[in-house]
Amino acid sequence: MILTRPLSITGRLTLGFLAGIGRATLFAASTVANLVRPPFYWREFLTALMQVGYFSLPVVGMTAFFTGGALALQIYSGGARFNAESVVPSIVAIGMARELGPVLGGLMVAARVASSIAAEIGTMKVTEQIDALVTLSTNPMKYLTVPRVLAGTIAVPILVAVGDAIGIFGGYVVGVNRLGFNSSAYLKNTIDYLQTWDVTSGLIKGAVFGFLVTLMGCYYGMNSGRGAQGVGTATKAAVVAASILILASNYLLTTLFFAQ
User: Fold this and answer.
1) 189 assigned to some structural domain
2) Does 165 fall in a domain?
3) pTM of this prediction?
4) Domain assignment of residue 89, yes or no
5) At CA 110, angle to CA 105 and CA 112, rounded to 5?
6) DSSP labels for the chain?
7) How many domains are there within the chain?
8) Residue 14 falls within a domain, yes or no?
């Protein structure tokens, strides 16, 4: 009995983990299926678009600016060992567009939006507002989940594009004012080495991250436990799951886009 107890616990945890993946996958499939079925709640969609996109812009912009500046300092410091300081503009631009812009933007949105959505929908479940929607013949999936997931899928790539520009500008400010780069030469190197696919791949990542973040917020909100503790647990789980999925999908997408 003592010897089999660890195996029993491991098996139970594994089965629970796989069951959770299955439930989340079915939830995602149902969300996608409801995207193409009427009705569509435009007011909820526009409200979610403002909450996910516009109100996330300050935190994404500040994160991108300081990340671009820190990246410029790090690349300059490392490049100085090999007399390669001139690569700072191009590496900052490529690094922000391909990797840091989408990932950091997605994580900031996950911290802000996934928690907010999970808490909002979880509170609606606890106070039986979702049951009231069903009583009024309103599909909670279409009213609560679909507008938010679609808004996240559209808004996050826009945030990534803005964050890329701000991050590159942060590298420019540090490069010109702190590292002594010529302003025109810095901009020329940035433009010459930054390719269209570098930006496009980051925007595709942003769309995937936005889908995952809002999906996890809705999923854990819909499956929230009863009471304040249940809502708090759902909020924490939504942020953790969204962050892990962002990092895992980023690796898969990077392998798909850039593996030779």
Assistant:
1) yes
2) yes
3) 0.90
4) yes
5) 100
6) -TTHHHHHHHHHHHHHHHHHHHHHHHHHHHHHHHHTSS---HHHHHHHHHHHTGGGHHHHHHHHHHHHHHHHHHHHHHHGGGT-GGGHHHHHHHHIIIIIHHHHHHHHHIIIIIHHHHHHHHHHHHTTHHHHHHHTT--HIIIIIHHHHHHHHHHHHHHHHHHHHHHHHHHHHHHHHTS---HHHHHHHHHHH--HHHHHHHHHHHHHHHHHHHHHHHHHHHTPPSHHHHHHHHHHHHHHHHHHHHHHHHHHHHHHHH--
7) 1
8) no
**Tens digits of residue pLDDT in 20-59:** 788 888 888 888 888 888 888 889 999 999 989 889 999 9
Q: How confident is the model at residue 3 (pLDDT cuts 50, 70, 90)?
A: low
Query: Domain containing 80: what range?
Result: 40-258
At 226, list the tokens. 């009863």
Q: What was the pLDDT predicted at 2?
A: 63
pLDDT attached to residue 210 = 94
